[in-house]
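Researcher: I've been going back and forth with a colleague about how Glyoxalase might be arranged in three dimensions. Neither of us has a model we trust, so I'd like an independent prediction. The organism is Streptomyces musisoli, in case that matters for your notes. Sequence below.
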Amino acid sequence: MTAGLQTIIYPVKDLDRAKALFGALLGVEPYADEPYYVGYKAAGQDVGLDPNGHAKGMTGPVPYWHVTDLRQRLAALVEAGAEVLQDAQDVGGGRLIASVKDAEGNLVGLLQDPAA
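Model: Here is an independent structure prediction for Glyoxalase. You can compare it with whatever you and your colleague have in mind.
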C-alpha cells in the first residue's frame, strides 16, 4: 500500500487574487474554476485553491497524499496519534478526502480517487 504526494491545497481569502498569482506561477489555466474551488494541473502536480480552507481549520498549505484505501490509512494515522480534522468525505465523482493534524500541529491530507 503506497502513498504518493500529488496534490497540495492552499486556503485563500481572496480567490481572484490567488487565481492571478497561481496562474502567473504555474503558467496554465485552471482545470476547475468554481466559487468553492479552483484547481490547476502543472508538471504532474495538482494545486488547489480553497476559499473555505481557513474555516475548515487549514492554517497553511496542506499536502494531500494519494492512497488506495483512505479509510484504512486514516484509521492507521489516528492509531499513530493523529487528530482527525476532516473525516472521510466524498467531494464528487467518488473522490474521497480527509485530513488530520499530527502531534506537531502539521496538517496532512489524504485523497483516494475512485477505482479505475
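Researcher: What would you highlight for our discussion?
Model: I'd start with this: The radius of gyration is 14 Å. After that, consider the following. The chain has a mean pLDDT of 93.
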